[in-house]
Protein: Oxido-reductase
Amino acid sequence: MSTYSQKRAQPRLRALMVGFAGHQGKEYLPVVREYADIVGGVDVAPAAGALADDWGFPRFTGIGEALKRVDFDVAMVTVPHSEHFPLCRELLLHGKHIVKEKPFAVTEEEARQLIELAEGADRSVYTLLQRNFNPVFQFARKNLARIGDPYWFSYDYHFNLAQPTSGWRASREQALGGVLLDMGYHLIDVLSGMFPEPSRVNAAFVHHYQEMRDRHLEDLVSLMCSYPSPTLSGSLRISRHNHEKSERLCVLGTGGALNVEPQGATLHSTGGRLLERFTRPGPKTDAVRAMIAHYLGHLDDRDVREDHFRRQLTTVRVIDGIYRERSRERNELADRYS
Structure:
């Protein structure tokens, strides 16, 4: 039998969709179906039943029920941050692979526990981070050396929401953090793939709305990153209520500059001469499709798994460290005025 025939003979993966009725879950449904059979879904949302009927799979209201009722190889998890760890722990204890929305974990302790559980079960836990599969960001990583030694970066990412944050992201108990954990996770992960882990991060947390201040959920965060090498520093600004939606990474090096936006990137020499312009060759959905195909195709690849674990542990550790320092400062301030 030819290699092609052997591949064709392999059974399709069976996927369980957890949180499929939310915005992100609905976006992934058609892509997952290209590469796997969706054998069930877990969601308590009122609209989940009708959506499951439309897609032709059974709907369950809890992960325990799904584990008893259907056999599956991998769970696609798109739920509020507070539900990630207990869900993933339960799935790994039952020997299931996981492909999940960010964050990989909320705290470094949870990240280490998750990695230990995954390695013990010989299962993967992959995090859905679209920028890693966007050709523009791939171009940036590949060509970073062309600007010499990087000495500065600035990374800005803004939404233009006209109203206060709503839904589970407005709940401290469910979100467990504001824009840093939500939007910022993507940016910290991008930087983790380009630079060493920062040795120190100074953070300013800002609130547009009083209700978000009361819940300790930042509307804007500004970060200044220092690195083991004194020749590299950088800044990030992340917010939900800017006048326009935008994302831009600029890296300055001893030999030029790299500018990256989701739609394209440019390389310039020192002095501003354009060296190369790269434009994303297809729509955003191409990156989503490539991401899900890659993860589902490497569930049993231990090398890919270990690389993913190392990078996600770095990303979680940086964000957890920022929040811990912020909590310490807030407690010191409260003690001072108590």
Notes: The chain has 13 helices and 14 strands. The chain has two domains: 10-129, 135-279. The mean pLDDT is 95.
